[in-house]
Specification:
Elements lengths: L1 E4 L5 H11 L14 E6 L5 E7 L3 E2 L10 H22 L3 E4 L5 H9 L3 E3 L2 E5 L2 H5 L5
């Protein structure tokens, strides 16, 4: 097996593999949103897989569940806004939140811009977040 940098000419075959085996998942933008994209081939240079490592921003929140649902809801919106700002500053195009054992928490996040992403919830970092600059 050969591991090598993914090339533009690999994209057609990798897309074919993706459409055949993963049609319900969005095709990754290997050429732009990855630290490194690679291709694994057999000894005949036939592609076995394409993959890579992309930056991932994870939102981590510790919430006092004794507070009212209104307070928590408002705090979640502020946490989302703060996270989007930070995510934009460091160049993430997506942030994820892993929500365990709290369906109402997850529903609230979905109502405020998060969407299902495999076993996580994710939110796109908008372009405006990359352009905000704060000064003190």
């Amino acid at each position: 097996m050969i591991v090598r940098e993914m090339k533009l000419e690999d994209m057609e075959r990798i897309r074919e593999i993706h459409e055949l085996f993963f049609p319900d998942i969005e095709f990754p933008d290997f050429m732009h949103n990855f630290y490194c994209a690679f291709t694994i081939t057999d000894d005949n240079n036939d592609i076995i897989l394409g993959g890579g490592v992309r930056p991932m921003g994870e939102i981590v929140l510790v919430t006092d569940r004794d507070k009212s649902s209104v307070q928590i809801g408002r705090a979640l919106i502020e946490a989302r806004n703060a996270s989007l700002f930070v995510g934009g500053k460091v160049g993430f195009n997506e942030l994820v939140a892993f929500v365990k054992n709290n369906d109402s928490y997850a529903r609230h996040l979905v109502r405020h811009g998060f969407y299902p992403r495999n076993s996580a919830l994710a939110i796109q970092v908008p372009k405006w977040a990359e352009q905000h600059v704060t000064t003190n």
